[in-house]
């Protein structure tokens, strides 16, 4: 086991482990650490604890110190400089006529490097832009092209649910999401309804997937023949959320069919049913869905 402290450098960013090096670091403390990018200012979101060695990336770097008031002041000054650098970079991009969208600017704590994040449809030759920026800021310049998911995470916004984006508030890392998840959750396969602001599948499809998979293991599928307390019948509808099925039963009195609802724990499957794929009637929606699936596969 190794003693570590978990540090974040951005809100909802990835948590990185560092060696506390004997410092009494508590959750919520601001700290100064050394990273591959140089000296950085971060927040301890996980207090000192022990984790298995296989969970860390060796060699484990040490926390240099708990941030002082002077460190906090310098951090705020860097944030102010980032806004000015953003304006300057926008002007330079316009002057060079580059097809790129500037998303964010970040100063390293020691001011040894400025990182400009941007999106673009393809590759961009920004060598002359880097020279111009280096001449203005007199420090190392890095231009980093990011994807649409990272763009949404940095810019934030409101999702279809009306709440701030999950990726910008609490998701530390993006997890793979697939069309299969939407199908298993009986959601509309209209691309506009299952896509987020980034144009990719909504991250929240992943949240309930594990529950759906567990319930579906025991839930009879549509078309299955089941034994109930009121006789044998065919499942015509199932609900994962309510863990119930609707069963069409033979009525012994008048040879009519009756439909009743049962808990999935009150039925015993005799003959299994089959998964029914949601229907897609709109050809344009089908094309959009196929394109969305290919984009998701590329990002994996």
Which key terms come to mind for this protein?
300 residues; alpha+beta; five-stranded antiparallel sheet; 8 helices
Outline the fold blueprint:
Blueprint: E1 2-8, E2 16-18, E3 30-35, E4 38-51, E5 63-66, H1 69-96, E6 101-107, E7 113-119, H2 127-137, E8 140-145, H3 148-155, H4 166-169, H5 179-184, H6 191-194, H7 209-216, E9 225-228, E10 231-239, E11 244-250, E12 257-263, E13 268-271, H8 283-299
Parallel strand pairs: 7-8
Antiparallel strand pairs: 1-2, 1-4, 3-4, 3-5, 6-7, 9-10, 9-13, 10-11, 11-12
Helix pairs in contact: 1-2
Q: Would you mind describing this structure in some detail?
A:
By secondary structure, the protein is α+β, with helices and mostly antiparallel strands. It is built from eight helices and 13 strands. The strands form three sheets. The chain has a five-stranded antiparallel beta sheet. A five-stranded antiparallel beta sheet has the order 12-11-10-9-13, with no helix packed on it. A three-stranded mixed beta sheet has the order 6-7-8, with helices on both faces. Helix 1 packs across helix 2. The chain starts with a strand and ends with a helix.
Q: List how many beta strands DSSP finds.
A: 13
- Secondary-structure content class: alpha+beta
The end-to-end distance, rounded to whole angstroms, is: 32 Å
Q: Quick one: biggest sheet?
A: 5 strands, antiparallel
Number of helices: 8
Q: Averaged pLDDT, please? A: 86
Report the oligomer: single chain
How would you sum up this structure in a few lines?
The protein has 300 residues and is of the alpha+beta class. It is 29% helix and 28% strand.
């Amino acid at each position: 086991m190794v003693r570590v402290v978990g540090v974040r450098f951005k809100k909802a960013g990835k948590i990185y482990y560092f060696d506390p090096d004997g410092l009494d670091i508590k959750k919520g403390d601001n700290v100064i650490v050394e990273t591959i990018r140089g000296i950085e200012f971060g927040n301890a979101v996980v207090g000192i604890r022990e984790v298995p060695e296989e969970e860390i990336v060796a060699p484990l770097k040490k926390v240099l110190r708990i941030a002082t008031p002077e460190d906090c002041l310098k951090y705020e000054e860097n944030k102010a400089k980032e806004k000015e650098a953003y304006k300057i970079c926008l002007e330079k991009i316009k002057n060079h006529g580059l097809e790129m969208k500037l998303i964010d600017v970040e100063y390293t704590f020691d001011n040894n490097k400025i990182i400009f994040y941007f999106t673009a449809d393809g590759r961009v030759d920004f060598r002359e832009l880097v020279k111009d920026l280096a001449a203005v800021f007199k420090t190392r310049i890095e231009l980093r092209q990011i994807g649409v998911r990272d763009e949404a995470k940095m810019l934030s916004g409101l999702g279809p649910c009306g709440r701030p984006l999950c990726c910008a508030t609490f998701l530390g890392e993006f997890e793979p999401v697939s069309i299969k998840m939407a199908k298993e959750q009986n959601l509309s396969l209209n691309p506009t309804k299952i896509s987020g602001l980034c144009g990719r599948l909504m991250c929240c499809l992943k949240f309930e997937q594990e529950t759906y998979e567990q319930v579906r293991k025991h839930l009879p599928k549509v078309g299955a023949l089941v034994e109930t307390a009121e006789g044998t019948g065919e499942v015509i509808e199932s609900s994962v959320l309510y863990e119930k099925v609707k069963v069409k039963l033979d009525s012994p009195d008048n040879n009519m069919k009756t439909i009743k609802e049962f808990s999935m724990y009150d039925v015993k499957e005799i003959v299994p049913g089959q998964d029914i794929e949601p229907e897609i009637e709109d050809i344009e929606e089908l094309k959009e869905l196929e394109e969305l699936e290919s984009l998701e596969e590329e990002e994996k």
